[in-house]
Amino acid sequence: MTDLGDGPVGHATRSRTRGVPRQRAGEADEPLPTGGRAAARQAQRGGSRAHGRAAQRRRAKQAPRGRRVLKITAISLSVLIMVTAGAGWWFYEHLNGNINSVAIDDGAGGKEKADAFGRTPINLLVMGSDARTSATDCKLGGGCSQTGVQTGNGNADVEMVVHISADRSNATVMSIPRDTMTQVPACKDPDSKQATAGYYGQINSALQYGQECQVKTVHALTGITIDHFVQMDFSGVVKMSDAVGGVSVCVDADVYDTYSHLKLAKGTHTLKGNAALEFVRSRHGFGDGSDLGRTVSQHLFLSAMIRKFKSAGTLTDPTAVYNLADAATKALTVDTGLGTVKKLIGLAADLDKVPTKRMTFTTMQTGADPANANRVVPAAAAKSLFATIANDQSLTSSSGKKTAAATATATAVAVPAAQIAVTVENGTSISGRASTVATALIAGGFSSGTTTGNASVSATTTTLTYGTGQKAEAQTVAKAVGLASSHLKQGTGTGLTLVIGTDWPSGTTYPGSTSSPAPADTKAATSNAQASTADQSKSCAKVSTYKTVSLNGVPMTPTQAYRAATNKKDSAS
Question: How far is 189 from 170, CA to CA, in rounded Å?
């Protein structure tokens, strides 16, 4: 290859010639003086000329070398840019290739309603599966000695509804205990083809019929529109905790859960790998030894992980970012709406905007299932908690403190919503419209006696008919769904009947309504909900004081088991 320093023949010679002073016209060559000051001056002038000519020759020789150095540098820089760009593209494609995504529809009949500025909240269902679908999960979770590696989605033993507000100023994380009894709708898993016509059972079992079924079940229970889901298995917890360098947790006493194998001395520990999984799986070690106690310890773990994400250096260290991104994309199954690295980064950025003091962790309030003392059902207060999420209400003020109870407009109604039952009828040809609206009403605090059915004739206009003396009740319902007074009429019978017309084809708020749902009572929403915020770094998990574990067949408290198991190595050691 020709050197860039080469030029036409004679070019270098011309450059050197231009550096030699020309002889003036008529000037003759004379011999150099041999002595005196004149001779010295002549010699000096001659020496200067000679020095100049030598310098010219050196520059002429150096110029091509300098151009070669610049050329080599430019080529090297180009190669570096190409390699870097190629590595970046490989990295991006590698992470995208890690992601497993599934399409979902929560059956809500519409998406989140935008606020006055066009912003919309995000509702995300986070699921932790108990499936042992790999040798790694079998080793971590156990229980495969007879069944071997399993197939299918398993049960959603961890379920959290994560709500990020429209203005990204606050977030609420609500855990739903796995032992909650509810109605699972008709579902069919598009992959396994496993189907159900619907049944009454534990909420975590819906995952067996696919992620969409679990999403629909949570929506039906809470009335909250679910935009996205994220699912993680046993190995995912291990990978994520390792990727952030461990998660710091505190226990208020010695604990040994002989079921999850968690063994920790009183105090603060940094948990990685199996130890992290043992902590989030422990249900016998904390609280009353049930799933309710486990949700609280999981909140402490997640709060600590979020603080670690936000800590200085975690997201600015390229190696840490790569390890975290690689672990996250390998560990997660998500909906197609989150099925690329770019979309996951967008979700992370939205969550990162929320200060930790305004991230509220809660557990759905429950009561004992009348038919089974070992199962639970949503308590009345849960309706207020559902409504705060559905209405995009914050459970903390700008200072991070719990908000006050609902405003006077919500509490001064003549008839409380809980005392109002509505018959919702579908006057359209769109399947499920009455069920969608009725579910939203119940989630908003209206009586569980609210029922659904089909209208006797099709209706082009939505109407709310009320009986004698029930106008105030009708106005409360109308305000909740955004109906103008022109849609209300008094009938000859009793009760309230809401007929959904073709002018309301989707959603749970009447189209074009400028009304906002009545704010929920935030004091009731957090009552008995184990509410805490992510900035509470000094909180410790409460070790159970009940005999929830056994060692060598002897029932013990987790603390007694810790002291007795002297041959068992601590999880964090």
Answer: 34
Does residue 15 form part of some domain? no
Q: Are residues 324 and 439 in the same domain?
A: no
Rounded to whole angstroms, how far apart are CA atoms 234 and 419?
Answer: 44
Give long-range contacts, CB 8 A cutoff, 24+ apart: 451-458.
451/421, 451/422, 451/423, 451/424, 452/423, 452/424, 452/425, 452/426, 453/423, 453/424, 453/425, 453/426, 454/425, 454/426, 455/425, 455/426, 455/427, 455/499, 455/500, 457/427, 458/427, 458/428, 458/429, 458/502
Query: In one letter, which amino acid is 530?
Result: Q
Q: What is the dihedral of CA 501, 507, 510, 514, to 10 degrees?
A: -170
Strands (E), 370-521: 372-378, 422-426, 451-454, 463-466, 488-490, 496-500
Confidence of residue 210 (pLDDT cuts 50, 70, 90): very high
Residue 185: partners with Cβ closer than 8 Å, 6 or more residues away: 107, 198, 213, 216, 217, 220
Amino acid identity of residue 358, one-letter, is R
Q: Does residue 5 lie within any of the structural domains?
A: no
For residue 122, the Cα-to-chain-centroid distance in whole angstroms is 9
Strands (E), 397-551: 422-426, 451-454, 463-466, 488-490, 496-500, 532-533, 549-551
Domain ranges, residue 511: 408-518
Q: Distance from CA of residue 538 to its chain's centroid?
A: 24
Burial 119-134 (b: 16+ CB within 10 A, else e): ebbbbbbbbbbbbbbe
Task: Evaluate whether residue 171 is within a structural domain.
Answer: yes
Could you tell me the CATH number of the domain that includes residue 336? 3.40.630.190
Residue 546 lies in a domain: yes
- Name the percent of the chain in helix, strand, coil, to the closest 5: 40, 20, 40
Quick one: 153 and 204 in the same domain?
yes
Identity at 124, one-letter amino acid code = L
Residues 193, 130 share a domain: yes
Burial of 41 (0-12, 13-18, 19+ CB in 10 A): exposed
DSSP 448: T
Give the relative orientation of helices 382-390 and 211-222 as an angle to the nearest 10 degrees. 110
The Cα–Cα gap between 159 and 176 comes to 6
Supply the pTM of this predicted model: 0.67
CB atoms within 10 A of CB 203: 26
Q: Are 87 and 196 in contact (CB under 8 A)?
A: no
Helix (H, G, I), strand (E, B) or coil at 460: coil
> What is the distance between the alpha carbons of residues 397 and 389, in angstroms, rounded to a whole number?
15
Residues paired with residue 426 on neighbouring β-strands, in sequence order? 454, 500
pLDDT digits (tens, 9 = 90+) for 386-401: 989 988 999 987 677 7
Residues 2-38: tens digit of each pLDDT: 333 333 333 333 333 443 333 334 334 333 344 444 4
Phi, psi at 374, each rounded to 5°: -90, 5
Question: Are the C-beta atoms of 344 and 350 separated by less than 8 Å?
Answer: no
